[in-house]
Amino acid sequence: MKVVILAGGFGTRLSEETNSRPKPMVEIGGKPILWHIMNIYAAQGMNEFIICLGYKGEFIKEYFLNFYAINNDLTIDLATGETVIHGGNQPNWKIHLVDTGLYTQTGGRLKRLKKWLEQEDVFMFTYGDGLADINIKSLIKFHKSHNKLATVSIVRPAARFGRVNPNGDQIIEFNEKPQTGEGWINGGFFVLNRKVFSYIKEDTTIWERDPLEELARDGQLMGYRHNGFWSPMDTLRDKRFLEDLWNSNRAPWKVW
User: Fold this and answer.
1) Secondary structure (DSSP) of 23-38
2) In this prediction, what percent of the chain has a pLDDT beyond 70?
3) Could you tell me the end-to-end alpha-carbon distance of the chain, in angstroms, rounded to an integer?
4) CA distance linking residue 22 with residue 13, whole number of Å
5) CA separation for the pair 56, 73 (Å, rounded)
6) Angle 254-239-131 (CA atoms, 0-180°, nearest 5)?
């Protein structure tokens, strides 16, 4: 099963870091948060990724093109130009880096991947800025149990994120970033049937608006309750919080 990761936004709320690099390349413990997210999936058996590029996407391409050199020791012979990479830090990942446009919205970025997912009846989908100790296998098992088109992980942090209204496990209402509200919110780890593409109209479609709202109205959106750790990296305060957890060996998302 392929994992789609959104990595093309401007990250304006973290401008202290994102003026010089895309948000998924902001580091936690010396590694891009994108690397952390990919490890969450890889530790649970998912190792093929499609990364949606946009703002400063060349930084992500350069990182993975030079991944072995960055993550291993090197010997460089300047006389001959020969380079030897030492060590075995070589994750078994296949990574597709796809330019989905500079100004494309979240739904539009997903829609642009339709041809990349032609062989996938079901796939994973998440954001490039959120960490959790979520059980991916349990999430997939839950999705397969209900035969609906979409599953969203739902969590319980602050009310500044998209609020969902569950009736049992079925999501009957989806509201992105309400002014007030509390309870379960969008945790960002999705399992999707490819039929969700019919809910996305164009590049300007925001995934968290019309598509999820319509899926909820049609009874096709289910919520997987994640009661463990979850945190976004929206602000410098969030980054420092995650960095402190990592540096003190208390990072709950480190499941690898």
Assistant:
1) GGGSEETTEEHHHHHH
2) 93
3) 19
4) 12
5) 27
6) 35
Query: In angstroms, rounded to a whole number, what is the distance separating the alpha carbons of residues 60 and 53?
Result: 8
Identify the band that residue 177 occupies on the pLDDT scale cut at 50, 70 and 90: low
Q: Report helix, strand and coil shares of the chain as percent, to nearest 5.
A: 30, 30, 40
Tokens of 72: 């291993």
39-95 pLDDT per residue, tens: 999 999 999 999 999 999 999 999 999 998 888 899 999 999 898 888 777 899 999
pLDDT band at 168 (very low <50, low <70, confident <90, very high): confident
For residue 10, how many other CB atoms are within 10 A of its CB? 16
**Domains of the chain, each with CATH number or no CATH:** 3-247 (3.90.550.10)
Structure tokens at 58: 């060349």
Joined together, the tokens standing for residue 192 give 């999707």
CA dihedral 15, 55, 47, 83 (to 10 degrees): -90
CB atoms within 10 A of CB 233: 27
CB 102 within 8 A of CB 9: no
Number of Cβ within 10 Å of residue 62's Cβ equals 12
Strand extents, DSSP E, 180-226: 185-193, 221-225
Extended beta strands in 82-220, E state: 82-86, 94-99, 122-127, 130-132, 150-155, 163-167, 170-175, 185-193
Compute the C-alpha angle 153/155/160, nearest 5°.
115
> Which helix H or strand E contains 52, and what residues bound it?
strand 48-53
